[in-house]
Fold this protein.
Amino acid sequence: MLSIGWMLWNQSSEARAAFGLGFLKPTLQASWDPVLDHFQAWPFIYGTLLTSLVAILLAVPISLGIAVFLAELCPSWLRTPLNWLVELLAAIPSVIYGLWGIFIFLPRVITPLGNVLAETIGKVPLIGVLFTGPIPASGASRLAASVILTVMIIPTIAAVSRDVLEAIPNSQREAALALGATKWETIWQVLLPYGISGILGAVILGLGRALGETMAVTMVIGNSIEGSLSLLRPGYTMSSVIANEFAEAVSKLHTQSLIEIGLVLFILTLLLNMMARFLVWRVARKTPQDARA
Amino acid sequence: MNNIKNIIEAQGLKRKQRRKTANAIMLALTGLLTIIALIPLFWIIGYVVIRGGKSITPGFFTQLPKPLGMGGGGVLHAIEGTIIVSFLATLFAIPPGVLAAFYAARNPNTPLGIALRFGTDVLAGVPSIVIGLFGYAIVVKPQGHYSALAGGVALAILMLPTIIRTTEEMLKLVPASLREGSLALGAPEWKTSLSVLFPAALNGIITGFLLSIARAAGETAPLLFTALGNERFDLATIIKGGIAGHQTIFQILGRIFDQPIDSLPLTLWKYAQMPYPERVDQAWGVALVLMILVLVTNMIARIWIEIRKKRLRG
């Protein structure tokens, strides 16, 4: 663990010395120029953050629905097969998501959806900036990456939240039901608040996975650093620029800049993971062992 | 008086009705969301099977890639590569993984045990591309060239958390009475571990290996700049050449491990982005092979774990 961090730090020393904090500065006119040896990471950081946040926004309600269904409602004969199916979703290699994305999902769903969004929300001031069209005919865009990421992180969030719900003592449910609450009120007003920190942990784990996801995103995001904020335009992420350019980087500074991006990514996911573990661990501790049904 | 009571009752009824409706709608919604989330799964599997099935021929598994435009050809090089890299990764990951798991299971509350568990959890969250960078830094850079060996090391790091965690879980499932019995008979701690705990948990541990190999075999990102990919990799020629040249088995293995190598996911990634329809068709074929490999391993492992858990609980 430590050696990974140290290695990344060490190997990017020259890039850090050359560009300083300007490397990370938010700017629309960022330059990433292997010929002039001048590198700024902002487009990639923005792409990673934007796609991951949108993916989280989309994935959280769906995953919570699944977790609630699996933990509280599902008849027991259906539970094991459904658990398996959700886990299979996580087991499919990410290149296959990418392949499916390029040839099936993007042209059939994302391009039409993108056109509609550009026509409607794209015209609204302020948030319209995020939905400026036109979306490329291939559908390759930040939106595509976000949606694929959503599918990929749903299993993570759903599985951990399900475990959190299952760890809640039965006395909580019984008390709420005895007071006359309906099943939904029990879930919404008692169980979810009780498990909130664990669920938050699940969400952060999902976010960590979204930030680091490489292959599927690289295949559908379009890989361009044009200066646009829009979800509907092609973009780039930290992991995909490393994937695309690292093996071909010639100059030392180019390699080092890519490693520095890796370092930023590493630190980001490290912090998120530690936070998530801490939250999940707190729930586990709050629930006495013998109270679990 | 009566009138007011009626109104209150009517409102109560209305409210009750509303709560019931909300209940029904929200509960139905959770079921619906579950179905929505599973749509992509069936969509992906369906397309991969249909489009991949078309390009699967016997030659697909037994031939090396042919130059573009000639048609035919297979992905034998990638199949061999996947096996070789996964083999190397397993070789590197299992000894430290199992040892760490034994330590963590035996000493869960020592500082090292806690640090180990925490480190495993965090390592599991490190993006695979960053692990690829690490593999590049520790193997490719000192060696000066890409190699199967470097790919194996990168995948091994990726596999470690899964191996440690499942092995530890399985060791914990072994009843304490077994261990105590062995210790009571005067067996030293190491012998108890080796000849009582380990065999008792072996089935489950192997399942853990299977799961982690399945995960590693589907990974692309750590291989991009460690194994790199090599369309001209030809195992048969290397071995024949080695035998003809009277090389020892170690020299032959050295030659295999020392050069860049392809794997199924790497090939899929490259082919999918090519503008040639025949390559794209082959990409779907690779996707099918890869998916069957990963899903079947996963299913077997999970069924195995379920059976085992049931048996141990009695």
Residues 1-55 of chain B form one domain. Chain B touches chain A through 66 residues (CB under 8 Å).
